[in-house]
Amino acid sequence: KTQPLQHHNLLVCSVSGFYPGSIEVRWFRNDQEEKAGVVSTGLIQNGDWTFQTLVMLETVPQSGEVYICQVEHPSVTSPLTVQWRAQSESAQSKMLSGVGGFVLGLLFLGAGLFIYFRNQKGRSGLQPTGLLS
């Protein structure tokens, strides 16, 4: 079952540094080519004889959907692909909770080490034990 993620996403496929300028960049959603919502900058010359382009897909992803940017160019024998998988809101919140917990743990570890070493520095000096006669 797929659930909408409730917000638009702009997926950007950036291809740069290629020559010659003939290139085909396509977006796929669950192995079906997407034509609606696709916008391209067209070819942009870099000034060093190479080109770049951005091909964007605006979509409202469903949880579990797989999006693929596919690039075909004469310099490669088979198409190059990059995949993006839509995550559910709960998966995103779990990931953010995990990252937040990790960062909080690092902060407590740093504070503990700071206090420990500060207390050690105070004890490292010679301390008188009594008078010698």
TrEMBL record:
InterPro entries: Ig-like_dom, Ig-like_dom_sf, Ig-like_fold, Ig/MHC_CS, Ig_C1-set, MHC/Immunoglobulin
GO biological process: antigen processing and presentation of peptide antigen via MHC class I
Residues covered by the Ig-like domain: 1-81
PROSITE patterns in alphabetical order: IG_LIKE, IG_MHC
Transmembrane annotation, as ranges: 95-117
UniProt superkingdom: Eukaryota
Keyword Nucleus (UniProt): no
GO cellular component terms given for this protein: MHC class I protein complex
Keywords (A to Z) from UniProt: Immunity, Membrane, MHC I, Signal, Transmembrane, Transmembrane helix
This protein's name: MHC class II antigen-like protein
Species this chain originates from: Callithrix jacchus
